[in-house]
Amino acid sequence: MKLIFYHKPGCHLCETLAEKLTQLPNLSLELEMRDINTRADWFEAYEYEIPVLAQVVEGEEVVLPRLSPRLPIQQMERMLKKTLRM
């Protein structure tokens, strides 16, 4: 499953969430990392929201409900399974 991960360098919450997403035991995720500092539209949209996960569904980018990097991995996986369109 491919997800878009909006982040910025030096963001501790972004780093923690990205690390946990790679450790999910029952979900194989591919993260397309997008640094919001590289495009003005991404920066404007997500400056105060990062980290942000999105999924492309039928050609449209759908922002997923916010996942706290503090969540235990098992709870994060359950929440993603409920949210993702597979």
From TrEMBL:
It comes from the Bacteria. Signal peptide: none annotated. This is Glutaredoxin family protein. Coiled coil: none annotated. It holds the Pfam family Glrx-like. It comes from Spirulina subsalsa FACHB-351.
